[in-house]
Amino acid sequence: MKPIRVIDLLRSQETGKPAEVKGWVRTKRGNKQIAFIAVNDGSIIHSIQVVAEVAKFDEELMKQISTGSCVHVKGILVPSQGSGQAVEIQATEIILLGGADESFPLQKKGHSLEFLREIAHLRPRTNTFGAILRMRHHMAFAVHKYFNDLGFFYLHSPVITGSDAEGAGEMFQVTTLDLKNPPRTEEGEINFKEDFFGKATNLTVSGQLEGELAAMALGNVYTFGPTFRAENSNTPRHLAEFWMIEPEMAFYDIQDNMDLAEDFLKYLIQYALDHCKDDLEFLNNLYDKELIGRLQFVVSNPFERLSYTKAVDILVNSGKKFEFPVKWGTDLQKEHENYLVEHFKRPVILTDYPKEIKAFYMKQNEDGKTVRAMDVLFPWIGEIIGGSQREENYEKLMARITEMHIPEKDLWWYLDTRKYGACEHSGFGLGFERLMLFVTGMTNIRDVIPFPRTPKNADF
Ligand code: 4AD
Ligand code: MG
Question: What Cα–Cα distance (Å) separates residue 235 from each residue in 113, 118, 149, 333?
């Protein structure tokens, strides 16, 4: 007989029959006669209760079965005497697979999230991180399911690149040069011709540019991979290594792009409601009593759509004293994004931003001042999606590249799409951890990725 997962046992009607389980002991309580051992195997937030008549077991073994240890239990599945669970295992045999002494750091309930960050190697053994990691899996699967069902193709964009997609400077360099003694050019500069790739390279900040190449061949594609930004943003919403989902669609204009973004987010949130019920209920009860209600609200109400210009009017006329004063042309800060979401009491999609504060590839509007950008703003999170219709006109794109002093030599391949069979197209990027913040109700992005990478922190 194969050991069964706790999730299957708890749902099983097969009482009176033999059952066994392998998992980790969460708690052990009881008295001299009887021990109640909660065993969790990660398959579900709930543990199964194992009931052991102490006299039937070796004394030393019973001592060693403690919080954190790993056990193999054999017995009979019986209707539970206690409340809180329908079934439990009446143990006939317990095998200690791996002991854990009193130094196991998760002895008591209710450790702070800050403390758990310091033991990120063990925090998956808590209910909270079990729930988050299971939900991460379900959300990642839902991303693939959504696009697959719509006929999009998954494109594997490179992690190492020689260009900076966003035209921003903060990247992690990738090199095999000897940092103590790098080869030099005659001018005394570091000679990257001698580096592994024969040029300076970095970890990608986005898979978009490669996504655009593929969209010009396959129609609708998406990337979903790790993304790296070396900006020193020590905030609860920034990671140096995060996962991004970037769909790119041929023949989509910005309206189509917004429709897709809204539908995609609603699908993912509904998926969480449908497939992560136990974990959501746990997080809702322990951390955020409004979590499930907020998710239900977002899936059942249209997002508000307006231009950046109208949004700035609302902010200016609000009479509110913002820490960062706002006027047309300034980049919106978190406080402004929050104000707008509060104002409309729902997610907001802002479009047509000033070209100065957006990337070179965005489609230029007729007014000469704005571009067809779209940012989706979510309650508490702020920007969850950033995207745009792309500039497909070669001359206009080149003019912007020159204006912004972007090295053309790194982008010749990207520009070729505008020379050969260019067409209207659009795309966006969803920060996977920002989505995870929203669906779990967690408030720090370090708590929705297994091993966070932030400034001065790359342990585990
Ligand atoms: O707005 P961003 O920078 O857009 C792009 O990278 C485009 N290439 C996307 C596209 O059009 N294909 O980033 C997109 C999203 C943000 O809205 C945010 O959710 C997330 O990525 N993001 C981060 N998440 C965690 N930590 C960071 N440091 C992030 N920077 C961006
Ligand atoms: Mg952005």
Answer: 16, 17, 35, 13
Which residue has the least CA distance to atom 6 on ligand 1? 206
Contact (CB, 8 A) for 398 and 407: no
According to the model, what pLDDT value does residue 142 have? 99
- Rounded CA-CA distance 356/368 in Å is 11
In the sheet where 241-250 sits, what is the strand order? Answer: 153-154, 220-228, 241-250, 425-431, 382-389, 370-378, 348-354, 304-307
Q: Which pLDDT tens digit goes with each residue over 22-32?
A: 999 999 999 99
Q: Which atom of ligand 1 is nearest to the CA of 434?
A: 19
pLDDT over 70 at 13, yes or no:
yes
Kindly report the length of the chain.
460
317-326: long-range pairs with CB below 8 Å, 24+: 318/343
Instruction: Say how far apart CA 148 and CA 142 lie, in whole Å.
Output: 10
Q: Is the CB of 385 under 6 A from ligand 1?
A: yes
Token digits of residue 232: 């020193």
Best CA proximity match to 303, nearest among 374, 378, 385 = 378
**Least distant ligand from the CA of 204:** 1
Contacts of 33 (CB under 8 A, 6+ apart): 53, 54, 55
Average pLDDT over residues 76-89: 90
**Residue 51 main-chain phi, psi, to 5 deg:** -110, 125
* N-terminal to C-terminal alpha carbon distance within the chain: 37
pLDDT score at 158: 96
373 lines ligand 1 (CB under 6 A): no
User: If you measure from the C-alpha of residue 431 to the centroid of ligand 2, how many angstroms do you get, rounded to a whole number?
Assistant: 10
Place of tokens 């197209």: 425
Q: 333 with 375: CB under 8 angstroms? A: no
| Residue 162, number of CB atoms within 10 A of its CB | 16
Ligand 1 pocket test target in 164, 358, 434, 448 with most atoms within 8 Å of CB: 434
Task: Give kind and range of the element (H or E) at residue 6.
Answer: helix 6-11
Closest CA to 397 of 413, 412, 418: 418
- Of the pLDDT bands very low, low, confident and very high (cuts 50, 70, 90), residue 164 is low
pLDDT (tens digit, 9 = 90+) per residue, 105-130?
998 778 999 999 999 999 999 999 99
pLDDT averaged over every residue in the chain:
95
Averaged pLDDT for residues 441-455:
97
Q: Cβ of 455: how many Cβ atoms within 10 Å?
A: 12
Cα distance between residue 276 and residue 295, in whole Å: 12
The closest of 255, 40, 268, 4 to 136, measured between CA atoms, is 268
Does the Cβ of 389 fall within 6 Å of ligand 1? Answer: no
Distance 183 CA to ligand 1 centre (A): 35
